[in-house]
From TrEMBL:
PROSITE patterns: PROKAR_LIPOPROTEIN (PS51257). Residues 1-19 form the signal peptide. The keyword Signal applies. Belongs to the leucine-binding protein family. InterPro entries: Leu-bd, Peripla_BP_I. The lineage of its organism: Bacteria, Bacillati, Actinomycetota, Actinomycetes, Micromonosporales. SUPFAM superfamilies: Periplasmic binding protein-like I (SSF53822). The keyword Signal applies. It comes from the Bacteria. Residues 52-369 form the Leucine-binding protein domain. This is Branched-chain amino acid ABC transporter substrate-binding protein. Keywords: Signal. Coiled coil: none annotated.
């Protein structure tokens, strides 16, 4: 019986090792382990190539960011199809469709679906949300799973497994404060925001900037849902700040701006990048948004004239323009660069991909961002600090027209990121 038990144990360990991914070397001399197969992808263009499987975990059905998340995901499908059409990477094509999962913007659900797919993927082409990604970060680090986030928290500057693009929420808010200081000369600012890495990070950036700019700062956390904004609206009416920074979802933004304006508030609003959706131009809050609101952004919108933007539009014919598409496309460039470098290094294992990420000093974003935005080797010191600003416009493809191009404000330029900003709130 002891011998039988021992044999069963050995077999179980062996099976676990197989699921975990034994390291092998392909015909081209490239090492692989988990999420890379010699068999072609399901929808392969070239059946002679193997397959790299990437996962996507997004807010696809019922969370506050589904209107952005669906186009983000569709853009990433189109991005990797373009990569495959151009010949793939290192003798492989890339599959981002087999392991798409919905997180419903719920950290517990995010962790559950991540656990379902992590044994089958090399990396994550998308992990949407700051609090949701936080739920899997420890395991990602333990498993060497690299991920492109659909989020901008400043904590990512200190995580090697996260390959972020664009200014983080903290820097974005600093730039918003400098922009407002130059244009409107506010003396007081109120930050209305979700709790967690998303909202707290933006609020912390506003707080840091307010201290530098001599403004009075206050903040209020609010929950998701149009019916839960009474406290936020009351705070605005009571305090009458010159500037309100909103870091929520689009539904909450419309309720806050629309109802505050209806009660006589005439101060300015600036929304952190995920708050906007062009459908708001057709909402009851549209007149208030047109009069009082501007939108910060980590890159320029759908209609911009760069090779990357043009490639994106060509790859997504017939869609209703959305900057969800722009975001999904931009976020994909660093992972493409890391995969190409890992393949050139003859190491497409998870550890090999992470090593490639940590050695990247630049990424070709095809003009959508400067190449230096992909300096992951520099860590927090390599963070991009540029932000653009838009105002609502019903005639614009994605509902907004530029009022300031990508620029670094004085506060952000002088700020040294030494840890996640939200810790300072």
């Amino acid at each position: 019986m002891k011998r039988i038990a021992a044999l069963i144990l050995v077999a179980a360990v062996s099976l676990t090792a197989c699921r975990g991914g034994d390291t092998t070397t392909d015909a081209g001399g490239i090492k692989t382990d988990i999420g890379v197969t010699k068999e072609p992808c399901k929808d392969a263009i070239d059946k002679a190539k193997g397959c790299i499987y990437l996962g996507i975990i997004s807010d696809l059905t019922e969370g506050p960011f589904k209107a952005l998340a669906v186009p983000i995901t569709d853009a990433q499908k189109a991005f990797w199809k373009r990569v495959n059409t151009a010949g793939g990477i290192g003798g492989y094509e890339v599959d981002v469709t087999t392991y798409i999962r919905d997180n419903k913007y719920n950290p517990q659900v995010h962790k559950e679906v991540y656990d379902q797919i992590k044994g089958n993927i090399l990396a994550l082409a998308q992990t949407l949300g700051s609090p949701t990604t936080a739920a899997i970060l420890a395991d990602m680090k333990a498993s060497n799973i690299v991920a492109a986030p659909a989020a901008w928290t400043s904590a990512y500057a200190f995580e090697d497994v996260i390959i972020e693009s664009g200014a983080n929420y903290c820097i974005e808010s600093m730039n918003a404060m400098d922009y407002a200081a130059d244009k409107y000369k506010p003396k007081s600012v109120l930050s209305i925001h979700y709790a967690g890495d998303y909202g707290d990070d933006a609020a912390a950036g506003a707080k840091i900037a307010a201290e530098k700019l001599g403004m009075t700062f206050s903040h209020l956390k609010t929950d998701s849902g149009a019916d839960k904004q009474a406290g936020a609206i009351a705070e605005i009416i009571a305090k009458k700040p010159d500037l309100v920074l909103v870091t929520t979802g689009p539904t909450e933004l419309a309720t806050i701006v629309g109802q505050a304006a209806a009660r006589g508030f005439t101060g300015r609003f600036i929304g952190t990048s995920p708050t906007w959706n062009p459908a708001l131009n057709a909402s009851a809050a549209a007149p208030a948004l047109a009069a009082l609101y501007e939108q910060s952004a980590p890159w320029n919108n759908w209609a911009t004239n760069t090779p990357g933007h043009e490639a994106m539009r060509k790859a997504l014919p017939g869609v209703t323009p959305s900057d969800g598409y722009t975001s999904g496309w931009v976020w994909s460039y660093p992972l493409k660069a890391a995969l190409a470098k890992a393949a050139a290094n003859k190491d497409l294992t998870r550890a090999g991909l992470l090593a490639a990420v940590k050695s990247l000093e630049s990424v070709d974003y095809e003009g959508m961002l400067p190449a230096t935005a992909g300096n992951y080797k520099a860590g927090a010191a390599g963070q991009l600090k540029m932000t653009a600003f838009y105002k609502p416009d019903k005639t614009a493809p994605t509902g907004g027209v530029m009022v300031q191009d990508l620029k670094v404000g004085k506060t952000a330029e002088a700020y040294k990121l030494e840890g996640p900003c939200f810790a300072k709130l």
